[in-house]
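Researcher: We plan to redesign the surface later, but first we want a full-length starting point. Tokens attached.
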């Protein structure tokens, strides 16, 4: 068997699954994410843009990695909130809820327009928040998104 054939064979073999199946819909995120902070895409955008600005002054031969550049382009395209104040307000809206940080990040990133859509896309929400309260939260988030400065 040639080296190339061996590499292809390794790539096509199924990966070993973890002992228990992980399911984000049930907040089964795995041990690595137990105490992890969940960020909004807009928060990642702020962090990456700050890092990009910090690197700008460095020597030109130290180019940004392809992964960094593509990630920055992604978050610039899909970040729903354009300024830090709006991001803080969105976070403040979700803070008093009983939602898990992962659920808050999902709601902030997806920007659902109706509570049925939110509960469908983030099934772990279940009955943690009433339909009217969730609908109000989504409308407030949408308002912040529309009128951000």
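Model: Full-length starting sequence:
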């Amino acid at each position: 068997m040639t080296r190339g054939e061996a590499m292809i064979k390794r790539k096509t073999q199924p990966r070993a699954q973890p002992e228990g199946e992980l399911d984000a819909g049930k907040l089964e995120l795995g041990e690595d994410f137990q105490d992890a902070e969940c960020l909004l895409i807009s928060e990642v955008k702020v962090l990456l843009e700050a890092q990009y600005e910090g690197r700008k002054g460095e020597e030109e031969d130290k180019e940004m990695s392809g992964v960094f550049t593509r990630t920055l382009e992604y978050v610039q395209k899909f970040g729903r909130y354009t300024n830090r104040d709006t991001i803080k307000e969105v976070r403040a809206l979700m803070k008093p809820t009983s939602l898990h940080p992962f659920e808050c990040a999902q709601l902030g990133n997806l920007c659902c327009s109706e509570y049925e859509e939110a509960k469908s896309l983030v099934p772990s929400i279940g009955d943690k928040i009433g339909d009217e309260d969730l609908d109000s939260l989504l409308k407030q988030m949408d308002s912040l998104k529309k009128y951000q400065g």
